[in-house]
Structures are given as C-alpha cells and as structure tokens.
Design goal:
By secondary structure, the chain is of the alpha/beta class. The chain is 34% helix and 21% strand. It has 15 helices and 19 strands. Strand 15 and strand 16 form a beta hairpin. The two termini are 37 Å apart. The structure holds flavin-adenine dinucleotide.
Length: 452
C-alpha cells in the first residue's frame, strides 16, 4: 500500500540543480519535499574521504565566471584554492617514450603554432555567437551540422596540433569530437568567456578547487532541508493535470501543486509520464546522450613530479589517460588526478576497478617516474557505470539538435518545471549551470504561487 504525502512543491533529484530549487523555495516559506534516488546528495558531484584526504570523484572545479557557485560556497564558509599550476605541462611523446614540456600560447594550453592559429580562429568565431545553448537560426544550424572532428580535420593540417586540440576538446566535452558540433563548442565556450578560458585554469573554467571537496555545499544544503529530503527514494512515475502533480516512488507518492524535475535528460525520459511527454520533447531528450568519463585520483607522500619540474598537467592523445593534473590541497598530501573521456573511458569502464586504476598508475609512472607506482591511496570512478547519472560530465546534444528548439527543455509542462545543468542557458554542463537552472525553476513556481 503506497503512502500519500502532500506538499506545495516536490523536487525530484538532489544534485546541485534540485537542491538550489528546493532551498530557494524553502527560503520563501514554501512547503517543499525532495526525492533523491541515491543514498547521498550531490549527484554528479561526489567527494570521498580516504585516509583523511577529500577526493572529488565528480565535478570539482570552480570557474572564474562561476559566481553562483562561489556565492554558495561563501554562504557556507567554504573556501577555494587555486588549481596547482607550478612547473611545466607535459605532452606524452609516444615515439620517444617520454614526456616533453609543452606550451604554445603563452601561459595557456596548446601544442604547436598551428594549434595556436586554430585556437585564434575558433576564438574569433566564438566572439560572434550568442552565449546560450539554445542559439538558433541559419548560422546556428550550419555550425550544428559540422562536428568538431570535421572542422579540425579540415582546418588544422598539422597532426600534432590537431591531436592536441582534439584531446583537450574530448576532455572538455567528455565525448569524441566526432559526436559534438561546432555549435555546442561555440555556445559553451562563449558562456565560459572564450575557448582558452574554457580550457584553462587561471581566469578560466578550471581556476579553483574547493577545500574539503566540491560536494560540501550540497551536504550543507541537505542539512538545511532536514526531514524534507528523502534519500534512496527514486521517482518512477509522474502524473500531472491542471490541479496538481503526483510523483510516485516505490513505497510512497507525493502530491503537490507543482514539481521540479531536476534530472539528467535520459532520466527525465525514463520516468513513466502521465500524460505522455509531448513527442518533440521526448525526441529532443533522446538526442541528449551523456558523455563518458573515468576519473582516477592517487594520493602520494611526496610531490615527486613537482620536484622534477612538472606541474602535473600532462596530455596523452593515445594512452588510457587523456589528461593528468595536480589537485593537491594546500598543506595537504600531494594528489594526482586523471580524466579519461569518450571512447577511452568506455574501455576503462569495462575493466575491474583494480585494473582500471593500474592502467592509470602505469601512465603516471611513464610520465613522472617509478614513485608514481606506489600511491598511499587510489580511488576511481567510471561515471557511465553510475545508474543514477548514466555518464558525465553532462549530456551533449548530438549534432543537428539545434534545429529542434532545445530551449524547450527548460520550459514547464503544465505544473511540472524542469531544472538540471542541461536546461541552463549558460554554463550548461557545469555546476554553475545546475545552480542557475534550479533558481530559475524556483522563481517560475514562486511567481505562480504568489499570483493573486
Ligand atoms: C567526472 C566529472 C567531472 C566534472 N567536472 C566538473 C567541474 O570540474 N566543474 C563543473 O562545474 N562541473 C563539472 N562536472 C559537471 C557537474 O558535475 C554537473 O554539471 C552538475 O553536477 C550537474 O548537476 P545537476 O543537479 O544538474 O544533475 P545531477 O548532479 O546529475 O543531479 C541529478 C540527481 O537526480 C538523481 N536522480 C536521477 N534519477 C532520479 C530519479 N528517477 N528519482 C530521483 N532522483 C533521481 C541523481 O541521483 C542525482 O542526485 C563534472 C562531472 C563529472 C561526472
């Protein structure tokens, strides 16, 4: 027998989007409940503590323009520290079997003069487009029909430069460049202040890290929600009409005046909708597959890579790790992290955890020497194996989707409102976009509930 519980608003999903919506509603005195499938909050942001070190297995960087996320951290007295960058970045030279120092655009991250020219060209194009994911029109359609891989093949004849740009963009979008359009590249980069800012640390999207881990603010938000938050409570079914919304879980259902569905697109589509989702919206949701990413973090007793002059930033365009970097907290133990995205992440995701970790440690050894073989601790996560995320960092529209009015994802369906980073106009795919989308959904509902 299913228990029925009533509230003014029911929020589905306790990632940063759902939590932002719930807290904004709660702050205006609204009666809100939150249903979360996992036994924790934070969704695609998850910090694990190992041997006293906080390790971010999901989202972690606070970008220079991510003002909402910064304000939220300040609200909970959480601090950030700059992403460690001292030393030389490295490029794995497969033939020579060693890491080569690599930097082309001063202070930034590209591989050869040819790459710098391509970056400058993309920057010029980015400056001409609007910085929102639902950019439409004939130019938008034209650029949405061109994949990043096609463009690189045609415009960047230098092999090394093309490989470097390809690796950095695969790591930015977490899908192969053959699966992401120039439209998505332009609008995402425009929202982050340009291509180099989107790829870079200082002044860019990877500028800072959160002391204590990036899910700290989510945990504080959960504390404020208290008993209104129901963990291990997956939504299965949504019924809505002009009187209200009922969201059904396994043992209980919530009836509310409004709902906020703050889930990744595939999870929105997987709910049992009554009435059914309109066809165009359902088809749009089908064209937003999740990216693929595996992250591995290794804690060491000494920063041996820094001692050898390396910053920890390393790129390998062929091996099991796309990108390495240093995420050591100030005063804490040294930590090397890796991101492997797209096809190579899918390969890692099939392996047992120990083998996956070993492949990454082998890459660290090749790059930085034998000491990398013996970390104090190593943790990993292939996000495509996570039932309630289905991948990461975010859903990336398949090329050609711009013709399908993608802005509809953020539009309410009767009394059901939608949040989630994929619905954000700006910083789409980032924590910042998730927070903005939750605040927007809360405002939509408040203005309706406040209406005379
Ligand atoms: C490895 C990795 C690295 C990343 N790096 C960064 C970074 O450095 N900086 C950055 O800004 N962003 C980064 N991101 C992206 C960022 O984490 C996401 O954009 C953001 O967390 C999305 O938040 P959200 O609330 O929209 O969605 P989610 O976090 O996915 O939240 C959705 C919630 O809904 C729950 N859920 C799913 N289905 C149901 C259901 N049926 N019923 C109830 N609950 C359900 C899920 O468990 C989840 O808690 C990264 C992501 C990954 C995976």
């Amino acid at each position: 027998m299913t228990e029925r519980l009533d509230s003014e608003v029911v929020v589905v999903g306790a990632g940063y989007a759902g939590l932002a919506a719930a807290l904004a509603l709660h702050a205006t005195g609204r009666d809100v409940v939150v249903m979360e499938a996992r036994d924790r909050v934070g969704g695609r942001v998850h910090t694990e503590q190992r041997d006293g070190v906080d390790l971010d297995l999901g989202g972690m960087w606070v970008g220079a323009t991510h003002d909402r996320f910064r304000e939220l951290l300040e609200r909970f007295a959480l601090t950030t520290y700059p992403t460690p960058q001292d030393g030389r970045a490295g490029w794995w030279d497969e033939e020579a079997g060693r890491l080569r120092p690599y930097r082309l655009v001063p202070g930034k991250w590209t591989a050869a003069p040819a790459a710098a020219a391509a970056v400058a060209r993309i920057e010029r194009l980015v400056r001409r487009v609007p910085s929102h994911a639902s950019w439409q029109g004939s130019d938008a359609e034209r650029w949405d029909a061109v994949t990043v891989a096609d463009w690189l093949r045609r415009r960047v004849p230098n092999r090394q430069a093309r490989a470097a740009l390809d690796a950095s963009l695969v790591t930015t979008f977490s899908v192969e460049t053959s699966q992401v359009s120039m439209h998505t590249l332009f609008t995402t980069a425009a929202g982050e202040g340009g291509l180099l800012r989107m790829l870079g640390a200082e002044g860019g999207s990877q500028q800072d890290l959160v002391a204590g881990g990036a899910d700290g603010a989510a945990r504080r938000m959960a504390e404020l929600l208290g008993a209104r938050l129901h963990l291990s409570t997956p939504a299965r079914e949504v019924r809505h009409d002009r009187h209200g919304v009922t969201v059904v879980s396994d043992d209980a259902s919530w009836t509310a005046q409004h709902a906020v569905v703050a889930l990744p697109p595939a999870h929105v589509a997987a709910l049992d909708w009554h009435p059914s989702l309109p066809g165009p919206r359902r088809q749009l949701l089908q064209r937003l597959p999740m990216g693929s990413v595996t992250k591995v973090l290794a804690v060491y007793d000494r920063p041996f890579w820094r001692e050898a002059g390396w910053s920890g930033d390393a790129v390998d365009v062929h091996g099991p790790v796309t990108l390495g970097f240093d995420v050591s907290p100030p005063g804490g133990p040294p930590v090397l992290a890796s991101l492997t995205c797209g096809r190579r992440s899918l390969e890692l995701a099939e392996l047992p955890a120990e083998e996956r970790q070993q492949r990454v440690l082998d890459a660290f050894v090749a790059w930085f020497g034998a000491e990398a073989a013996t970390p104090l601790t190593v943790v990993d996560r292939s996000w495509e194996n996570e039932t309630w995320s289905g991948g990461g960092y975010s859903a990336v529209p398949v090329p050609g989707t711009a013709t399908m009015r993608p802005g509809v994802l953020a539009e309410p369906l009767g009394r059901v409102h939608f949040a989630g980073t994929e619905t954000a106009a700006r910083s789409n795919g980032y924590i910042e976009g998730a927070l903005a989308s939750g605040e927007r959904a809360a405002k939509e509902i408040t203005s309706l509930l406040d209406a005379p």
